[in-house]
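Database export, one record per block. Field names are fixed; values are copied verbatim from the stored entry.
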Amino acid sequence: MRTPARALAATAAAMVLAVTAGACGAAEPDGPPNSITVWTMENLPERLAAQQAIATRFTEATGITVDLVGVAEDQFNQLVMSAAASGELPDVVGAVPLAGVRSLAANELLDPAVSAAVVDDLGADTFSARALELTRDGAMQLAVPSDAWAQLLLYRRDLFAAAGLPEPRTFADVLAAARALDNGDTAGFVGSTIPGDAFTQQTFEHLALANGCELVDGAGEVALDSPPCVESFAFYDDLVRNFSVAGAQDVDSTRATYFAGKAAMVVWSSYILDELAGLRADAAPSCEQCVADPRFLVDNTGVVTALTGPSGREPAQFGEIVSWAVLADAAVDPSRRFVEYMMSDGYVDWLGFAPEGKFPTRTGTRSDPQQYTEAWRTLPAGVDTKAPLADFYPPAVLTALETSPDTFRRWGITQGQGGLVGAMLGELPVPQAISAMTGGEVAPQRAAEQADADVSDIQNSLR
């Protein structure tokens, strides 16, 4: 999922903005292909319009026509398999999440050679090394990573300072702060617990990765009952059952609780950053102090990217990388030129759709290594009001956000389990175990065993 709020709500039906050729790589009778079909999962109307403007400039510069088609993320797998069966695959797909890239690769629907050529032409050293790693299979560059959003821990700096607490960067820090700050008016921590929501998985995976809990072991077998995973389940259970608010929590309630000033910490995606700044009218801070000072909460919120658990080897966090994928049988040259354009001349406008959820995975060019990260800081974020994140967050926070893709880890992706990751999102066995555990039905050890067994069943069904 690209974001646990807006992308999950983006379920609009596929929209075709321009139609000049129905199949891949339409060509003039006596010339090379001069038209490509591009699907994009950035399918909200205003984002489609912005992409059409970029595509129009590309056409003006190259003479290559782009048929831009918006597709809903939850319909993508069905649409792409149907298109493959009928021989009508697009040439390029944009904003493909990591699990989607692996699914396309498993079905032999990618042309990795074109993606590798793009990265080589633009310069591999201008990309986030971790973003390239997450989109590779061994030495094969499956897709071109375009941007990222990050899972974050937000905390009340004013409450931490008053209690003499350090910034929460470890499990021990988080637990100590939750215990110290939890009282009748304010919960120490709030996180998602409902069983039917991918946001619950994203929240737990964020913490589990920090503790070295992996989906599978070195042999590819499910390992959710390993000691680091059991430890992670127990940590989350302690936070939720002892220092959180009553009842099942989801993507909306966790944000609302923090915005009301009723929680000292919350795990949420970076898409919260513009809302926290008051740039979205229907999701603005509502704390008591916010009435007199709309900036109170954003000015008193700290942002932590990667965390470290007691069994973790290094700081890590959950994050999503989305990519440009060139599909099998695509018109090679125009597809390559289009992706290169979107990662260069069109890149800043691409990031400008939602800067709070589109961190650049290409930092700059060979001649200007920080060109895109510097431009990103100036891009206006928000929905009803627009302003750069730099107007609300200090340089250190922006730097942490820019560099967060370098600390991204993901369950199963680099272990060749992309198909399993995608299938898990359909059944959500981990959120089900989390819900049972935090609801008091099972102990953490049993929750880990339940999740392990259910994910193993899914893995066996894919073999």
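Remark 1: The mean pLDDT is 92.
Remark 2: The domain at 6-148+320-390 is CATH 3.40.190.10 (D-Maltodextrin-Binding Protein; domain 2).
End of record.
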